[in-house]
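## retry 2 of 3
previous attempt timed out at serialization; input unchanged, resubmitting
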Amino acid sequence: MIFQPRQFVLLAIIFLPLSALADIAPEFIEGVWLSADGSGWIKIELGDKGLVGSVAGSPDETGGRQPSDTDVLNPDPALRDRLLLGLTIMDGFRYAGEGKWKNGRIYDPNSGKTYKCKVTLVNENTLELRGYIGFSLLGRTETWIRRE
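## retry succeeded, writing output
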């Protein structure tokens, strides 16, 4: 079958965005991201245990969280004195291809709760996180923005 120029352009328009998603390297997620509520910077790294995220600071050190803030809402009283700065809040994620990470957990220091989570790298500067209990349908999606 010989393609006409119009058919080729149409096929390119359809398949080009799909190929861009397929080419996202797992390492591209690494960096510092601003949480959805704007209260903290989260540093995401890849390690032996998959994707890991930890609190890297606050965008406004004078108005937001302070470096001396502790995990006061943790349900385990023994952990309430640990500093939020440097605290691992994301772990267990495995790369599923096409910019998606699954089977992870995320800890919310604002509530003291831990949720199952999946992460999608929407584009180079946008990350979507879906935290849920049980099933993904019973959850909430947040959008994080990469720090420039």
